[in-house]
Structures are given as structure tokens and as C-alpha cells.
Amino acid sequence: MDFKKVVSHCKEYGFIFQSSEIYDGLAAVYDYGPYGVELKNNIKEYWWKSMTQLHENIVGIDAAIFMHPKTWKASGHVDAFNDPMVDNKDSNKRYRADVLIEEYMDKLDAKVEKEIKKAAKRFGDSFDPVMYKETNPRVKGYLDKKQEVGSRLAKAMTDSDMPELKKIIEDLEIACPVSGSRNWTDVRQFNLMFNTQLGNIAGEEGKLYLRPETAQGIFVNFLNVQKTTRQKLPFGIAQIGKAFRNEIVARQFIFRMREFEQMEMQYFIAPGTQTEWYAFWKEMRLKWHKALGTPEENLRFHDHENLAHYADAAVDIQFNFPFGFKELEGIHSRTDFDLSQHQELSGKKLQYFDPERNENYVPYVVETSIGCDRMFLAAISNSLQEETVPDAEGKESTRIVMKLHPALAPIKAAVLPLLKNKEELTSKAKEVYKKLSLHFPCQYDEKDAIGRRYRRQDAIGTPYCITIDFETLDDDTVTIRDRDSLEQKRVKIDELVSIVSKNVSMSELLESLLQ
Ligand code: GAP
Predict the structure, then answer these.
(1) Considering its fold, how many domains does the chain have in total?
(2) If I label 8, which of 51, 144, 329, 499 is the partner at 20 to 30 A Cα–Cα?
(3) Which domain holds residue 161?
């Protein structure tokens, strides 16, 4: 579905609001509304349980957002967690230099796509896009240019070469999208960490950072956890929590935020086993996404060209968002970089005695890291659909339906009395609603015609609508309507809890990960 429609649907149906909206909002900060918080909690539950319940050697922690400032020196964030920034002198707008160049490359891609579409129309069934890309001089020209720009960008980023980034922008004659001018400042490094000040210490000494990743809370607790849970390597520590980044370009709704939530797991392993565990976690994490019903063609691996300062291998799981394939999750082989750094700066040993190897060493780490908000956006984008279906009278009508996996749906069942002004129906419906609410989140709705009430529930992804009618009063049966198939069945009230529970069950979703 069109991205604008996804964004407006989130607001209209109480999933996401702009932060401090009455003051015109705060850029790249968002609040989750009543359905949003339920969906987000379900995503977190799915991730948390898949880590800590399905792996006996993975345990959780909840570390503080504030950490000793030396943490960020050790992790490399003080010196290296930067983005290259450039300002346009005419519009005073600020950009990420690498993003301006990437957007230029995206435009080349778009040109290639356009040429291919045109040619496919012209040549019909005999058209071979691969051959066309290799032989058509214009398309080849675009692709060669993209390759050349990509290599220059990758090298400049790896070398932190700011003058070269400026040179690329100048060579490509990139103009500011707002002013249209090419009047750029020099490219400078911009540190993405937010900082604040401790109450009782003045100056640099009291400088505190809001954590830009949750991972460091895990590293500094490595020995605490290992000793108290008596884990042997390999073992993992999982954490869900807020992270903060002062993003230069914060766009695309909750895709890139300044305050967001991460779900991270650090898997501590013996040195030399990282290739095996990296492959293992790549496969596990892809399975986790696919179990939600995300079509395979909307997910892909993308190897990092510029490795972060801590990694010896890194891959993204990209999702086909409404604005194209973009990073959803990262899997990083972080070597012993973080633990060694903390060991050095703290002066405390962060080593493990391996009884099989009969030696002490600093463990290696493979990390899986996914943004909860980005996962939320992926889940919504993947499930929000516009469909033509028969209405209550059998006529064709369109509906907006959110086909979320039932285990993620914010509300599991809606209880609807057929008529609002028949006390015997409404009181029976309220009775059923109360009973079901003990087991899962439900809604009672008596306002408007039944068809409109179905549509409201479709729009928030409720898997089941239960209607109480006159037959119910005679034999304690109700109709239960399935959101996706629209099938309606007559069942006993006593069967409702077990029917709905089974289909919305988190355990069943988790079980599918074991197959
Ligand atoms: N500990 C490793 C780490 O933080 P990262 O690739 O910088 O790696 C991991 O971030 C994940 O966090 C990303 O794949 C993305 O899902 C999410 N993420 C990062 N920056 C974000 C932002 N500004 N807004 C929303 N999510 C973000």
C-alpha cells in the first residue's frame, strides 16, 4: 500500500501519533496510541520469548539507559559514531552527505527501471531484462555510473574522507532539493549521541550520554550474568530497551527516529567459531520474520560494504518497505572488540575460563539487533491491504484490512450485539465480552450497523468478530466471523475461548519456529 496511506491509517486508527502534536510535533519522535502499544508489546513478546524461552542458554536483562561515560569511549561511539553532515548555504537545510549521494544512485536505478519497463513493452514476451542490462548502451551507462559512484562513496566512508565526499557531491552536481542551489558547506563529522549533564558534577567530567544502542548494557554486564546464571559458552543475553540517536536526516515516519527501541541479543562464543554462529543466527532471524507470514520476496539479506568499527562481518535483513528495500535488522560478528575495549578502559578482567580448552579468553560475540519501531512499520506495511469484498447484502464493496498475524493483532476479538436498542442482546453481549476479556484483549461495540462495525475491526486487524443475535438468546450460540476468509460459523458460547485462544496463540507462533 502507498506509504502516505500507511502513515495516515496509523494516525486515524490510534496506532501512532506525532509526539507533542499540539505544539506542532517534534521531528522524528512519535507516541504509540492504544492499538499501537498493544501491537508493539506483541512484537516485543514474540521476540523476547523466541530468544529467552526457546533457547535455554539465552537470558534477559534490563540495563539502565544512562551508563558510565567511559562506556562510550570504550565502545568507540565517542570517536567514531558519526555521520557526515553538509549544509546548503541558501536553504540552511542540513543533509547527510552519504545520503545525498545514495539518493543520486537511487535515481540512476529508477532510470534503469524505466528503460527496462519501456523495453519490456516494446519487445513483449521475448524480452530478456538481464541481457538488456548488459547490452543496451544507455542502461549500461547508468549502471556503470552507479558502480563508480558506489565505489567512491564506500572508499570515502571507510577512510572517513570528508573532502572526498564533498568532491563527489560537486562532481555529480547534486543540488539542494529545497533551494535548488549547489552552494554547499564543507562536509563535517557529526556525532550522533545525545548528551546531558549529571546534577552534581560540572563540565566534561559530568557529561552523560543517552545510549545510542542497548548492546553496551549487555557487554558491561557480561560477567555478572555469566557468573550468576552459571552459563557456559556459547550463551546469549537479550535486552529490549530505548536507544537515542541525534539523526541528521530523520524521515520516513518511524523508520528513522531520534528516540526508538531496540531488541538486541549478544551471543558470546569461543574465538574461531564466529563464522558458524553468524550463519546460524542469520538463518534463525530470517525464520523469525517468515513465521509471521511475511512473503519471502519481501525479505532479503544485504551484506555490509562498510563494516562498522567493531565488526568482522555484518549483514542486514532488508524488508521491502513501501519506499523500497531497507534495513530492518542487523546481524553482526563483533569479534572480541567490545569486551576487550571495556577490559582495557575499566581495568577489570572480562574473561571466561573455558573448561574444554582449558584456557581463559575474551569471548567473541555475534549480535542480532532489530529496531522494534522498524519492525512495527514492517508489520503494518506488510499487512495493510485494500480489498474488494461482498458486503452484508452481498454487494461488492472495498475494505481496508490489516491482515496481521493473529498473535500480533492488538485486539483479538470484538463482541457485537446485532442491535443496540435491544437490552436482552446488549446485556448478553456484555456478558460474553466480560468472559472473553479474562483471556485476551477484546472490544465491545454496539454503535452503527453491523457492517460498519466489521470494517472498523478489519481496519485495526481484529481476527474475530463475534455477533450476538436473537438465536443466541435461545440456544447460547453466536456467529464468529474470520477477518481474512470472511467465513462465518455458528458456535457455542462455551467454545469461544478455546477457538480464539488457539488461533491467536503466541505459543503456536513460537512453535512454528521449531519446525
Ligand atoms: N548494536 C548494533 C546496532 O545498534 P544498528 O544497525 O545501528 O546496530 C540496529 O541498529 C537496528 O536498530 C537497525 O537495524 C534498525 O532496525 C534500528 N535502528 C537504528 N537506528 C534507528 C533509528 N534512528 N530509528 C529507528 N530504528 C533504528
Answers:
(1) 3
(2) 329
(3) 82-190
